[in-house]
Amino acid sequence: MEKPNVPPTDAEMARELAQVEAEPLLPAEKWLIGGSLALGAVLLGLLLWVSRTYFPVGSN
Question: SS3 for the chain, per residue?
Fold first, then answer.
């Protein structure tokens, strides 16, 4: 008889993940991470500038 398809417990999953070797990031992945962080910082600065320029607080 076959065993029913039972999901692994947290302890079994932790043991399996502990055995997996970490893979280094590829250069393209590093570039994507850096580009995403830079783009996020630039867009956050743009949002701050737009909000202060067009929606000033307390200047009535």
Answer: CCCCCCCCCHHHHHHHHHHCCCCCCCHHHHHHHHHHHHHHHHHHHHHHHHHHHHCCCCCC
Report the half-sphere exposure of 44 (CA within 13 A, side-chain side).
Answer: 6
Does the predicted TM-score (pTM) go above 0.85?
Answer: no
Domain-wise residue ranges, the chain:
10-54
31-45 tens-digit pLDDT = 999 999 999 999 999
User: Could you count the other beta carbons within 10 Å of the beta carbon of residue 33?
Assistant: 11
To which residue do tokens 């070797």 refer? 21
Q: Contact at 8 Å (CB) between 16 and 8?
A: yes
